[in-house]
Structure formats: C-alpha cells, structure tokens
Amino acid sequence: MQRQQLYRDMDPLNLTPLWEVLHALVPPQPASPCVAALWKYEQVRPFLMRAGDAITAEEAVRRVLILENPALRGQSCITQSLYAGLQLILPGEVAPSHRHTQSALRFIVEGSGAYTAVDGERATMAPGDFIITPSWTWHDHGNEADGPVVWLDGLDIPMLRFFDAGFAENGTARSQTVSRPEGASFARYGHNMAPLRHDAPFGATSPIFSYPYARSREALEQLERDAPIDSWDGVKLRYLNPLTGGAPMPTMATYMQKLPAGFSGKPWRQTDGAVYSVVEGTGVVHIVQGETVQRFDFGPRDHFVIPSWHTARFESAPGCVLFSYSDRPVHQALGIHREERLS
Fold first, then answer.
1. Which pTM value belongs to this model?
2. Which residues lie below 8 Å from residue 142, measured CB to CB, with a gap of 6+?
3. Burial, 183: exposed, middle or buried (Cβ in 10 Å; 0-12, 13-18, 19+)?
4. What is the mean pLDDT of the chain?
C-alpha cells in the first residue's frame, strides 16, 4: 500500500505522519492518564515508621515515601506536573541542608516541635501549618521534640523535569547557621504591610514562608458564620503572596477550605489537578471520569488526588477541613485554565 510504504521509507529519517496521531495530540477535551487515588494514613503510617527504622534522615537526605499515582508508577509523581510525598523526621534527627530549583511546600500532618530552616530563619512546625521552601534557597529540617513529625511534601519536580530546568546543590554544613529570629519574615510581610524599601527576598515566591494553621482556621470559621456558603467549595480560601496578591509560589497554588456540617456540594471539574490533605473531620468525595465512578471516604491525615478534568463532588456530615495544592498558576499564566461548576 502506497501510504504504508511512505511510512517505512521515511522512518529512517525520524519522520512520522501527523495525521496518524493528530486526534491524540489535540483531543476534544483533556484526557489525563492519571487516575484519582486515596491514601489512608492509617495504612501508610506503619510504613513510614518502618522507614524510620531502616534508614536515618541524614543517610536518606530526605526520608520520604512518595505518593505515586497508580497509573504513573515509577515516575515519582502524583499528577503529570506535581510530586507528593510524606516525610518523616524522628527526635534528634537533622535532614541536611541543600537547595534546588524545584519549589517545595510542607504541610504538617502529624506532630509538633520540629522545624524547617530557610535561608537562615527557622519556623517551628505544628499540624496544619503550611510552609514554603522557595526555589534555590538553602533549607534543612530538624526535630528537637519528643515524638515523630510527618509532613506532606509538595513539589513541582515533574514540571521542572519537563522543562529540563532542574539544578541542586548540597550544603557543606549539616544544618545552616540561624541568622534571623523566628517570625522575622512574618513580622515584615504578614500583617498586610511591607517594609518601606522592601524587596522580594525569594523572587516570585512569597516572602512569608510559614503560614500558621491557627490563623487560617480562624478565618474559615468566621466566614462560615458570617458569609454565604459556596455550593461547590463550602468555605475556601487561597493562600497569597502578600507582595503580588498571587499564588505563594509561581508554579503551585495552595488552598484551605472548610466544609460545614451537613454539606452536600455540587459537582465541578477543572484543568488543574489537585492534591488534598485532610486536616480534620471526615467526609466523602465522589469522582467521575467517563464510565469510572469512585467514592473515597476520607478522615484526618488521609490524602487524595483529583486529576485534571475529573468531575468531583464533596459531602461531609460532621464537617471537615481540607488543605490542597495544584498547578493552577501555570495554567493561568499560559491562559489555558478552565473550570466548570455543574448543577
């Protein structure tokens, strides 16, 4: 056949016909290879503790169990653009100082009293706190408390891998020298004010690298009392870079939301895939993609992912609080973000 002979003859020149793959390259709507998935903390935690027995934080550099999307095993990602993992640090340990171009977030899941240090300033961790490691900043973690501390790591590793733009460097010291008192960044930028002659210490990333849960929850509770409840999201707030009003990191947006008791939400879908960490309470998320219908019953410290353009709907009888992050800032920067709120 003439067409097949054409394909064979041009193959040695690394040529391929667009018309054979056009519909896969330019689909009528997003067709993510990712699948929705749930990680129950009660099932994951024993493996974290076993990892604590098997390898030290210093030997591992970062003792993390990666939450891999079931459809993307071996690729170290939870969506095609985002990475997620649960990191454990035990009493007396230090995860040594290093830096990398990948932006990172830490969301504290279990335990208090550990710290992360960013460019000479420490932040003490408590459950529900959201902490940023800006791109190319020196950072280390330590645990001076009596018990284990676990947090969710969220990074843009797959995104930077796609752009071939990843760099990393190990520090020469086990932990960096503390050069600023704890809370210095929040004092400068965390009260709807900024220094008169301020700069952006972390470039496009928020100058606040620690957002305490107590403040976030207080805002959610007040809005639940005083403002209308959104039929899709309950009460949902986005974290801000106070210098720009945009997302805290150039590649990842972060959110905290509260579903009131008795909440039965309407379905929605969006092009940015999102990773969720359950802070408190219980609930249900219904996720539909094509003929696949899934129901995840979640509780405190569980994690789940809703991939791009999967229809989702939340319910919560007792009420719950959810933290989430997604790659929405990149979608918005490219002008390709789309969201549908269904009835």
1. 0.96
2. 89, 93, 94, 95, 114, 115, 117, 175
3. middle
4. 96
